[in-house]
Structure to design on (227 residues):
């Protein structure tokens, strides 16, 4: 089991910029989800990808978008960054059909200044 | 709307004492329930999960949780807390077996005193 790896671990961006966060899922895990965790809060569901298609989305605007690749890696893209986007972004993967119970990465800490 | 409530923001327990962290959920059907633990600056680690069957589930690190449908609760317990258990604990509900979205509570911070 190789785990879930996220990069970078920390990132500082300026308001209005765009950012791409990356996640490498466990081999065979064809479902990946992204979560935003603001300081002192629980994680909030952004969206989920299954076999490279988005198949669920939380209450986040379209400037949050994603991609999933055949090699089990994925990206979270955020356009027009706002100060409130500062948070820990978590990637989680699972194997569809095995029941939920994600394996989470350690996250990317994004600071927007 | 589905929701998860963790009534206790912060709990302090003496090392060796028992622990119970409360979780209440709001969901129309049979929920899939989870407890995760997060150490500072880290991601989330799954402690245990409930899908169906026996309402008392065992997890890692000596934790267990009991699903009580009548009370819409899924409380986490440990008989004897260790200093290394100090962390943030999150209860979550999954909306279906495919795992589409986990709704998390706001978490309970556990401190362990010596």
């Amino acid at each position: 089991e190789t785990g879930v790896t996220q990069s970078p671990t920390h990132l500082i961006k300026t308001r209005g910029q765009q950012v791409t966060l990356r996640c490498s899922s466990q081999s065979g895990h064809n479902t990946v989800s992204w979560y935003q965790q603001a300081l002192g809060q629980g994680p909030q569901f952004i969206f989920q990808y299954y076999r490279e298609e988005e198949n669920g989305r939380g209450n986040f605007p379209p400037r949050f978008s994603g991609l999933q690749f055949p090699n089990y890696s994925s990206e979270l893209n955020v356009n027009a960054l706002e100060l409130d986007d500062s948070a820990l972004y978590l990637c989680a993967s699972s194997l569809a059909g095995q029941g939920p119970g994600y394996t989470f990465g350690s996250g990317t800490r994004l600071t927007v200044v | 709307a589905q929701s998860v409530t963790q009534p206790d923001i912060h709990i302090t327990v003496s090392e060796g004492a028992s622990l119970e962290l409360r979780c209440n959920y709001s969901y129309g059907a049979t929920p899939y329930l989870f407890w995760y633990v997060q150490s500072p600056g880290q991601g989330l680690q799954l402690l245990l999960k409930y899908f169906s069957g026996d309402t008392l589930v065992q997890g890692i690190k000596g934790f267990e949780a009991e699903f009580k449908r009548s009370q819409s609760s899924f409380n986490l317990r440990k008989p004897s807390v260790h200093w290394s258990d100090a962390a943030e604990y999150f209860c979550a509900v999954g909306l279906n077996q495919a795992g589409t979205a986990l709704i998390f509570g706001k978490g309970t911070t556990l401190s362990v005193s010596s």
User: Anything to note?
Assistant: Chain B has a mean pLDDT of 91. The interface with chain A takes residues 4, 32, 34, 36, 41-46, 49, 51, 90, 92, 94, 97-107 of chain B (CB under 8 Å). DSSP finds no helices and twelve strands in chain B. The radius of gyration of chain B is 13 Å.
